[in-house]
């Protein structure tokens, strides 16, 4: 790690470093299933900004510590968010910044990706996962709607009927099914995941950064406006639903279960 990156790691809940032109952001709350707090979102937003400005960074990689990639939103964040406008929430700003990030983004799933941990994969250019891990969309169970432009990306990837089944009936899929759906690139044995991802990304970072960024811009140009609109519309609906009795009851039950466990 370079001297000017000495403060990148931040709190123990979120680790970051730069190596071989790749900035790795690692969720590091394994005892809390790597659930993402507002403070973690704020740190990620800062790191995405640094990665955008730093010409030595050619790729952004998300990873997790322990047996899970991330359980998604820390449930405490839902209560905190009620006092904020939907577009003031750190989670919303994170979604906008990642969706607009100009350089390649990769994810290395060491385990299940839940909630926003699954929907953020739609904004990753490369996704590698250990066998049998799951992408979990728990929103319907909680009385909420999927976010992060899921309503735009999923029908585009799999068609409306399969998207409805994935979100409302199955509420998730395996990594292997994710490959067939176009969400995951490859599955890799856990003991080989880090080395495999490093090798794959080395092939990307060796290319012309300008050509890579322009390729990504052109590939996303036709959907960029629609994705931005979807992120905002979903965030508004999500925020409104947080006030419903159904959601309040479900969140209270989840908090009680967490406290008891």
From TrEMBL:
Keyword Isomerase: yes
Top-rank lineage group of the source organism: Bacteria
Pfam families registered for this protein in UniProt: ECH_1 (PF00378)
Gene3D superfamilies linked to this entry: 2-enoyl-CoA Hydratase, Chain A, domain 1 (3.90.226.10)
Subcellular location: Peroxisome
Entry annotated with the keyword Isomerase: yes
Primary location group: other
Alphabetically ordered keywords of this record: Isomerase, Peroxisome
Protein name, entry field: Enoyl-CoA hydratase/isomerase family protein
Source species of the chain: Sphingomonas colocasiae
């Amino acid at each position: 790690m370079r001297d000017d990156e000495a403060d990148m790691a931040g709190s123990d809940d979120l680790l970051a470093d730069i190596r071989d032109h790749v900035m790795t952001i690692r969720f590091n709350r394994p005892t809390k299933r790597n659930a993402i707090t507002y403070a973690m979102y704020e740190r990620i937003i800062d790191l995405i900004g640094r990665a955008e400005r730093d010409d030595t960074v050619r790729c952004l990689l998300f990873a997790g510590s322990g047996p899970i990639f991330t359980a998604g939103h820390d449930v405490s964040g839902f209560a905190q968010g009620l006092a904020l406008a939907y577009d003031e929430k750190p989670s919303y700003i994170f979604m906008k910044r990642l969706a607009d990030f100009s350089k390649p983004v990769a994810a290395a799933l060491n385990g299940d990706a839940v909630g926003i941990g699954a929907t953020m994969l739609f904004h990753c250019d490369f996704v590698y996962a250990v066998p049998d891990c799951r992408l979990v969309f728990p929103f319907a169970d909680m009385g909420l709607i999927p976010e992060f432009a899921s309503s735009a990306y999923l029908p585009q990837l799999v068609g409306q009927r399969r998207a409805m089944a994935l979100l409302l009936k199955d509420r998730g899929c395996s990594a292997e099914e994710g490959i067939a759906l176009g969400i995951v690139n490859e599955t890799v044995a856990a003991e080989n995941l880090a080395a495999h991802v490093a090798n794959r990304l080395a092939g990307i970072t060796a290319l012309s950064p300008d050509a890579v960024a322009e390729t990504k811009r052109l590939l996303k140009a036709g959907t960029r406006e629609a994705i931005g609109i979807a992120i905002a519309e979903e965030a508004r609906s999500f925020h409104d639903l947080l006030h419903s009795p159904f959601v309040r009851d479900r969140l209270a039950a989840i908090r009680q279960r967490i406290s008891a466990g």
